[in-house]
Here is the input.
Amino acid sequence: MDFYKLAIKEIKRETKSAVSIVFNIPEELKAVYQFIAGQYVTLKLTLDGKEIRRAYSICSSPKSSEMRIAVKEVQNGTFSKFANNNLAVGDLLEVSVPEGKFTFEAKHEHQKSYAAFAAGSGITPVLSIAKSVLEEEPNSTFVLVYGNKTEAETIFHDELHALQLKNLGRFFVHFVYSQANATGELFGRIDKSVVNTVIKNKHADKTFSKFYLCGPEEMIKVVSDTLKENNIAEKDVKFELFGTTPTENV
Here is the structure.
C-alpha cells in the first residue's frame, strides 16, 4: 500500500463528536488520489511510540476536486480522539492511495433508482455515492435512509437537507432517530419495519436497481434479510461493515 504525506487543508466540526477533514493534494499526486465513489483511504500515525492505522471512507464526490473524510470520536478510539481534539490545518498525515470495492461508477445515460441504508459514520461512503448519482446521472433517483440517535448527532444533517432541496424529486432523505422524536422523521432504529415502510410504502413507485448498506453488523444483517424477503437479488445489495477496518462484500 502506497502512503504519501498530505497536509490538512480544512477541518470542520460536523457534530460535537465528529469532524470532517479535507486534504491538500499537490498537483503531482492528483492522479494517484483519483478515487471512485465509495472508496476509502488509510491514515497512518505514530502516537505514544505506536503506529496506528485507521481506514476512513471518502465522503466527497469524485467530481468535487476535493478529498474529504469524516472521523467520529469513539470510546477508547485513540486515533479518533486525537483527530477530533488535536489535529489542525497544516498538519501532515500519511495517507494511503484510495482503495475499496464498495463503489459506484456513474453512467450519464442511466435512468435508475438507488437506495441506501446507513447508520452513524456509515454515511461517509454513501454520501459520496449519492453525490455521484446526483451529479452524473441526471435521470436517476436516490433514496437514503439514515439512522442516528438524534439530529444533533447526525453527521452531514444540514448538507443532506440542502442536497435534498437542491434535487427535489430525485433525492429523498429519511432520517431515523432512536432517541428523539422529530416531525416528519422516523423513530427507532433501522429495522425490518423501517425497510418495508420505505420500499413498500414511501417509495412503492420505484424499482431499485442497487442497494448500498453501510453501518454496524446488526443493521446490515436486518436490512439484508428484509431485502431478501422482498425478493431483492443478493447481487443487487452491496454492503460495507463499519468497524475499525471497512469490510466489504464485492
Q: What stands out?
A: The two ends are 20 Å apart (CA to CA). The domain at 3-96 is CATH 2.40.30.10 (Elongation Factor Tu (Ef-tu); domain 3). The chain has two domains: 3-96, 113-248. The longest helix spans residues 123-136.
